[in-house]
Specification:
Elements (H helix, E strand, L loop, with lengths): L2 E6 L1 H11 L1 H13 L7 H14 L1 H14 L3 H8 L12 E6 L5 E10 L8 E8 L5 E6 L7 E3 L4 E5 L18 H8 L3 H10 L7 E6 L5 E6 L4 E5 L4 E4 L14 H19 L6 H8 L16 E10 L4 E6 L8 E4 L2
Parallel strand pairs: 1-4
Antiparallel strand pairs: 2-3, 2-11, 3-12, 4-5, 5-6, 6-7, 7-8, 8-9, 9-10, 12-13, 13-14
């Protein structure tokens, strides 16, 4: 498993990321640009970068560092990180958080990608120690500054895609991928995460954000460019897959997608219902589920593949990462140093 520890200022962390993966970033950008539709994206990039400079300048600082160190243009790196500008959003994923009767908290996520996986979607285990803000551990993507995980205060973020009927991006606006690193660096609990998300507006794409902290507070925020719905945990448990579980946001008319997403959610809910306490071993078992209707661990034959899986224990700051299919791999234990 690739590991990368980034420390210091936003610009310095970008430089270190760019130096470490310079060749991979150049290759990834070349492959990514081949997948882009025809069009002039420069105006949208300029307007969106200006918005970020005015609101969360640390994002552009990191992207400038990556582009300088890797020897590629800022515009290319920016679009690679904020690809929702051109509607290239196709993740799926499964998220679950639990607070057990004894108060212990556990969070899990499977990262899924359409198969075969794009050559530019390389990932690594990330430890971040910013000059300002909270340290965090999670996953990162080569050439990109985003990824979910857990910070030093025990706040966890996870996410899934979702596809609303009304999905026209408003520009300039934030890409959803920037939310998690901002939350992990700036927030210590779910109330702070929800308050920060209120400031991040408008968003140019859609999906679910799961937040869970060491005290057991948990919520899923369903977002589109035009709507936001907060769904709270019930009986210390909450699940998110690739649809809007609140029922308050209308989906695209894709019955097969919705059926699969709901069946996957039901698989997780049924596993939770069968167990009074969700231990580390039981969370691993949930993320490895292969139930015919709604498998959580997804193989390439289904058209979607689980590329990695992680589990966090916010109260002890333990982080377990499985690279590849969770049914075949081992969850290795990591932590913040």
């Amino acid at each position: 498993m690739l590991e990368l520890t980034l420390t210091g200022s936003d610009h310095q962390r970008g430089l270190d990321h760019g130096h470490h993966f310079a060749e991979e970033i150049r290759d990834a950008l070349a492959s990514f640009k081949e997948s882009l539709p025809n069009g002039d994206f420069a105006p949208a990039i300029a307007k969106t970068a200006e918005l970020l400079d005015d609101t969360f300048p640390e994002i552009n600082e990191q992207l400038h560092g990556i582009s300088e160190a890797a020897g590629v243009s800022f515009d290319d790196v920016f679009l690679f990180n904020n690809r929702a500008i051109v509607d290239l959003v196709d993740e799926t994923c499964s998220d679950v958080a639990v607070q057990n009767p004894d108060g212990t908290v556990i969070v899990g996520m499977n990262k899924d990608r359409p198969a075969p996986m794009n050559p530019y979607d390389k990932h690594f285990l990330s430890r971040i120690y910013p000059a300002e803000g909270y340290a965090s551990i999670g996953y990162g993507h080569v050439g990109r500054i985003w990824g979910h995980g857990m910070n030093e205060k025990g706040l966890c973020t996870a996410g899934t895609a979702a596809h609303p009927l009304k999905n026209k991006a408003r520009l300039p606006s934030f890409g959803s991928y920037f939310v998690a690193p901002l939350v992990l660096a700036r927030c210590q609990d779910v109330p702070e995460a929800l308050a920060l998300l209120e400031r991040i507006d408008p968003l140019c794409d859609s999906g679910n954000y799961l937040f869970c902290d060491a005290a057991g507070a948990m919520a899923v925020v369903e977002v589109t460019p035009h709507q936001r719905v907060v769904r709270k945990g019930e009986k210390g448990r909450i699940v998110a897959t690739t649809y809007f579980g609140s029922g308050q946001i209308e989906h695209q008319k894709n019955p097969a997608h919705l059926t699969e997403s709901k069946e996957r959610s039901c698989t997780i809910e049924d596993c939770l219902a069968d167990q009074r306490e969700i231990t580390l071993a039981e969370m691993q078992n949930i993320l490895r589920q292969h139930r015919e209707a709604g498998p959580v661990c997804r193989h390439e034959s289904t058209g979607v593949v689980t590329v990695f899986s992680w589990i966090a224990l916010p109260q002890t700051l333990e982080f377990y990462f499985c690279d590849g299919l969770p049914c075949e791999g081992k969850y290795e234990k990591y932590g913040l140093e």
